[in-house]
Amino acid sequence: MYCPACGVRAREGALACASCAIIFSKWKPKAPASAPASAVVKLDAPYVRSPAAWGACVAVAVILFALREHFRGALFLLDFVSLAVHEAGHVVFGLLGGRFLMMAGGTLLQLIMPLAFVVDFRRRGQPRSSDACLAWVGQNLLHVGRYAADARAQRLPLVGGGEHDWTYLLETVGLLARDAAVGRAFDFAGCLLIAWAGVSIWDRTRSRRSSRGLILAAFFLTPVAVDAAPAPEKAVVRVMTRMRASLRYRPEAPAPRGAHEWDARRVLEAGTVNGCVESAKAFFALFRAECPSCRALYLDSFNAAGEGGHAVVQVTGSDGADFIVDAASFERLPGRVGLDGAALAAAVDIRPDKKGKIVQVKDRGDAFLEKADGGYRMTVYPPGEVFDGKAVSRSSFTTLAGLEGALADFSAAAPVDFAWLRDRGLILPFADAGKTAFVYSNPGGGLARYVIYGRFPALPEPDDAEKREPAARERHARTGGL
Questions:
Q1: Contact 110, 82 (CB under 8 A)
Q2: Number of independent structural domains in the chain
């Protein structure tokens, strides 16, 4: 029961309002007959009431979607509550059904709980509290979107280990290859609910003129938000830098395998690659996780001038133009160098009488790392003058960790951006307008034309490139195309 004059909630059966002191039996509405119906705001009014607010809702949702990576974890205190509810959902729904319902139960209960608060507050006549809980539902959807998009890459840490919920769910329904699209759908739904809740609160407390101002501001800010979204070029640099720091080219470690045998998950878990195929798979998985809204294709190609092929990744840039990323060249980036006793005991190629390792950093100099005096030593020379020039500095360390730390500081000053990758040939253009080939190094020397015979929006599993390549070569030799 609510007071008809001031709107304050009153006790059932009360004779007068405790706030404004009117007697309910004697109160008469004094609203003028000419007052428009929209002038009276009902407690059960819909969330968004004006056309301007509806437009602002869509515009704000677009802005939030473009900037979602920047604020996804903003309400981190709620994350702990949602995590506890998520884990409880596995137990609750596991008792009600089979394995699929148990795996989906975490997400279901994570969304059902805040939705219950939405409904409860609406029934109590507290629309603003209901709006706030609706935003909570949207925030949970953003986390569900991130979890779903990680189904193949599986980079997110799992509480207590075990199987990835969304890997199982999407694989069961046949949508594992579309994990990024599923994640984006959850993300946009979450952004839409957050925008809907925020604009609803605004629309309840502001004049209609203010709502029109909100929609104008939102539409003007939309291009700015889109520009602020992670650019594909920046994502490429971040992924290549991450690969340089976490992967090593060691074909026989931890175990010998065929070029097309391992998937991206096993490569990333092992921390080693055995060639271009594993490098391209690792890059593709990391790139899709880094920039789910970016467009990318995994490409298989063969050397038209001889044996062999090269796996690369096609990325659509922020200007709409496509380019090729040579992920296999990630070790050419400056970064952390894996050091061990064997590496520092090996003879230097250009000076067999020296034992150690040379690390070159553009615009900084050349560092020679060696064992010396029962410890380790790093000697820095001017660029291109290692052993031939006068040493710029010389530092000694008692532990290998100390040497690695100094080397990391020395290498960190080398700036790597998209132009750096392009200038050094890690970013390649297509050789023709049809995007059917590119030019790359020939194992026998010089350059060769590599013909693309496979394009995949998701990593091919199982990878049957070795079976498809002979037929592609035969068609190319017979017709000059594919």
A1: yes
A2: 4
